[in-house]
Amino acid sequence: MLTSIKTNEFAGSKSKELGMMYFRVAIILFGAQLLMGLIAATQFLVPGFLFELFDFSVARMVHINALVVWMLYAMIGSVYYMLPDETGVETVGIGLGKLGFWVLTAAVTVVVLVYIFIQVGSGSEASIWFIHEGREYIEAPRWADIGIVVVVLIFYWNVFASFMKGKQTGIMTVMVANLLALAGLYITGMFFTDNISMDQFWWWWVIHLWVEATWEVFVGTLAAYALIKIIGAKREIVEMWLWIEVLMLFGSGILGLGHHYFWIGTPEYWWEIGALFSALEPVPLIAMFVHVLYDWGKEQGIAKAEGRPGSVMNNAPAMAWIVTNAFGNFLGAGIWGFFHTLPQVNIYTHGSQFTAAHGHLAFFGAYATILIGMMYMGIQGAYGIKEMKSTFKSKMGIFLVTFGVVGMTVALTIAGYEQVLVERAELGAGWNAFFVAQELPWYVQAQGWRAVMGVVTFIGFVYLVWDLLTIGSQAKRAQEA
Ligand code: HEM
Ligand code: HEM
Ligand SMILES: [Fe+2]
């Protein structure tokens, strides 16, 4: 039996409007991320490109920090968007939430300008407070860190108070508990210690326990919500799987941290712990993948048995991105992650382009995809559309962006393979070996292909934005006609 599909009970809700504000900034930052990636990719081919004007270190830093920040924006946007549907009440504290949005956006703007204008100089206590903290992915200076904590507290309070006031569904229960862990972990990346091993030890708590535990559970809640909304999946089924995923991901994800403790000066027992638990991490990812496809197939079967046309689906572009998420998560995190997670392999692949291949496919597959899907849901809600069909632009967007990222991943995997063979195995991984390996044709050509595929990704992004800007009003006109 299908549960009834209601898309617009909270159309015009203030919470959903606030969600859309977050989505808009997210997509702008996504664009900035890609432009920075293109600059950094060009610098791999022409090392002098923009030298001392816009150095590789800056382009790379802005690329990956923008990545994290746009995803956090899109996550907050998704929560504000789904909250009234799940709780059955309008979100509490919207005024405060709006204030938080503007404070955060002003802070992000200042931080990015500082990154771009202050490119070199010595590190000191003052630079940690005002320039950046030098911790990859989460480089925001400490003043901004504190601001982020305050804004996140406001956000968390709004979610928690709405949850207590309204219905407490399984999806929301997982969401509320998980968000607390997600926000709390950020604090472990805020302390400075001058022992590099200790610094890295805690830094991984944020990075690994975000992407391999709390963010994964987070997208599980989004997928559960979206499947109910788009194809009318049964709540009991998606929630059951969600609980199983919570159990498995937290189990394997937490000790899986060990796969980052192999070579940073931590005790050797991490080799065994890291190998065993991180190797188990793909299990929930595979379950998640099977789950989405199973639900989808089952729905088709029910439709057939009831003599209805299959694929009862009220938001085709969102669904396309969510199905891409299932594949992308499985491939990027599950397969590309597993490839290099055992210490026997990682000793050769550590910090190579192989890592970058995995980083691209995993972040894209597991997170970018579903967050873009949520943006399409946001537009459906904002325009009050009963059934949103894919347009030519939606199809070009998803195809080119996905093709581009997969292409980049393949290119980087080849570059990484060459590094493993020549730099690590043959030449012994010294300083000189690093440079020799970077000049050989396999490496140079792979970097060339990565740049080409980056341009393909960017063209896809232009189609995507164009579609997001037009699909709502277009579908609305068609609906009213
Ligand atoms: C969506 C989930 C995931 C994301 C977004 C992700 C992303 C990343 C990124 C960006 C890095 C590079 C970090 C750096 O700059 O040093 C990395 C490293 C790594 N990841 Fe993942 N990852 C995910 C899941 C997994 C899974 C499930 C596994 C194992 C099965 C895994 C195994 C590893 C390993 C072993 C490294 C260290 C690579 C090295 O030694 O250079 N990852 N991951
Ligand atoms: C226009 C497309 C893109 C280009 C040209 C590009 C290029 C680059 C370059 C040159 C680096 C530095 C690699 C290094 O230090 O060796 C990088 C790092 C990274 N990019 Fe991209 N990128 C693009 C899109 C993306 C997308 C869509 C994502 C994820 C959603 C992403 C995630 C990352 C991550 C996680 C890293 C750090 C990887 C690591 O250190 O292992 N990039 N990118
Ligand atoms: Fe990890």
In words, what does this structure look like?
This protein is globular. The chain has 3 domains: 1-165, Up-down Bundle (Cytochrome C Oxidase, Chain A); 168-313, no CATH class; 328-481, no CATH class. 48% of the residues are buried. Helix 1 (14-45) packs parallel to helix 3 (94-117). 78% of the residues lie in helices and 0% in strands. The two termini are 31 Å apart. It is mainly α and 481 residues long. The protein contains 16 helices and no strands. Residues 1-7 have low confidence and may be disordered. Fe (ii) ion is lined by residues 208, 212, 259-260.
Strand content: under 5%
Structure summary, number of beta strands: 0
Please work out how many helical segments DSSP would assign: 16
Gross morphology: globular
At CATH's second level, what is the architecture of the largest domain? Up-down Bundle
Could you state the order of secondary-structure elements as H and E?
A: HHHHHHHHHHHHHHHH
- Spans of 5+ residues with little confidence (pLDDT < 50)? 1-7
Residue share in helix: over 70%
Bound molecules: protoporphyrin IX containing FE, fe (ii) ion
Spatial extent as radius of gyration = 22 Å
